[in-house]
Amino acid sequence: MLDSPTHATPNAQRAAEKKTKPYTVGSYLAERLSQIGLKHHFAVAGDYNLVLLDQLLSNKALEQVYCSNELNCGYSAEGYARAHGAAAAVVTFSVGALSAFNAIAGAYAENLPVILISGAPNSNDRVSDHLLHHTLGTDDNSYQLEMAKKITCAAVSITAATDAPALIDHAIRTALREKKPAHIEIACNISDALCAAPGPISAVIVEEPADPETLDAAVEAAVAFLRKKQKPVMLIGSKLRAAGAEKEAVALADALGCSVAVMAAAKSFFPEDHPQFAGIYWGEISTPGAREIVDWSDSVVCIGALFNDYSTVGWTAMPTGAGVLTADINHVHFEGHDFSRIHLRDFLAALARRVEKRDSTMVEFERIRSERPMERAAKPDAKLMRAEIVRQIRPLVTPNTTVIAETGDSWFNGLQLMLPGGARFEIEMQWGSIGWAVPATFGYAVGAPDRRLIALIGDGSFQLTAQEVAQMIRRNLRPIIFLINNHGYTIEVEIHDGPYNNVKNWDYAGLIQAFNAEDGHGRGLRATTGRELAEAIKVALANAQGPTLIECVIDRDDCTADLISWGRQVSIANGRAPRSQ
Ligand code: DPX
Ligand code: MG
After folding, report:
1. 501 lines ligand 1 (CB under 6 A)
2. Are the CB atoms for 559 and 494 separated by under 8 Å?
3. pLDDT in tens, 40-70
4. How far is the CA of 454 from the centre of ligand 2 (A)?
5. CB 171 within 8 A of CB 149
6. Which of 102, 389, 407, 410 best tests ligand 1's pocket when mutated (most atoms within 8 Å of CB)?
7. d(CA 439, CA 431)
8. 181, 104 contact by CB (below 8 A)
9. pLDDT tens, position by position, 511-567
């Protein structure tokens, strides 16, 4: 994990090699990626990046992992960054990079430092009027860089070896600091050109400087704010992980003793087995008691929270007013105060040392808490239903499990799973691009090979990026994919239905056989009853050599109650009439 960087190469032999070995632009980049803790990079070949790929291969601490297309390559890197803290994807110019951009924009929205590296035309062609392949057919090839600037925190183009070290360091440094993607374009004739050797990595892993005086003032003001409150709750949002502040949030919870609710996109960022965990706050579809306790409170400490139309259930549920203290990655504001240039981690830790106990929301939550009724076991040969799928997945979630939930009703199914301490949950809720989950699961599995991965993916989403199951097979990775085949885009059905929400059926189990070809060990199974599902799960758990896909066949409208309620509110929000001028 990058959180505890390996700071790569502390052995004397490599240090000595570094002094003597000549560096090229490509091997410099590889060394930097390795120094920041990466063990893999994802790649799709193309003539503009072949020499670069050779250079990256020359670094034995970094393994090259191949993807079926560049969109999947971007998502795979995004998934790896979730498991490992950061990631890199290497693609070819334009036809490759533009496909990857969807995933890179997703990494921006999801606060993940993914470095997109693209081969680029020969530097001589930059300043000539030559027309080049894989381009728009005009003589201006700057469009890729210009587009990348909109969806990354740093985008650089390297056309001279002497510029490479500074530009590469700038891109990587900015991505790590801001937890956002960066873009590095390298002219194809520059990748193997000699350049300076990398200096100490401490020049690259540099945090935004914080201001200790502002931190003191912010903590002082927050202590005074909380002293006046009797009933605070904490609300954990998805930016908590990007801020590297999960432990500090627990410390603050322990000190305050109040109820702690999480937002859906932050599931698993606060331990669900913590005694103060009060469930998921998500407006009318909150877990039982979570909305009530937030509504009952007199102050909400929002930590890394991100409120959008989805997370507020169509703008129907969002803590507002004088009782809200907003603590963001580098910024805290509340009740007439606004403090920037501080780190959330430091703020939470210092606040935890200073606050007085305020546990009345916990006392009240104990009174009102109720558990959602658990699904009752279905008759073994009854037609398979969604609730039975969730019931059978529950016991699979161990402390070593990561659940990956694709956009669709899989979000709501996944959110219903209870996580024992150590279990993780991944959701791409801000970007919400269907097709994310298969390659993100692949990338996550590469980054965390010892974890059990359970992916919940709808039929419509699966069809976008199904090929990456073949890469799981290629590397003998063992995720279990529950492919929920409800024959359509059910989430859209519940928002607004029409013929466009029907999906062409596939033989999903048969597809795995096709991906296996002559040497794969993937298993594809189809379950239409609870008994078949239980049997398929046994096969999955016994499959030690490859992924298992279990197609779970259910009715088109067999969805969570949460999706129905949420879909209705989102539909109302989408349908608001234009304001008259
Ligand atoms: C769309 C969505 O089958 O899941 O559970 O049946 O809804 P459910 P499926 O995977 O269908 C997904 C579908 C079409 N969203 O319901 S959520 C619009 C959309 C998107 N991303 C991209 N294109 C379209 N979210 C890339
Ligand atoms: Mg579906």
Report:
1. no
2. yes
3. 999 999 999 999 999 999 999 999 999 999 9
4. 18
5. no
6. 407
7. 15
8. yes
9. 999 999 999 999 999 999 999 999 999 999 999 999 999 999 999 999 999 999 998
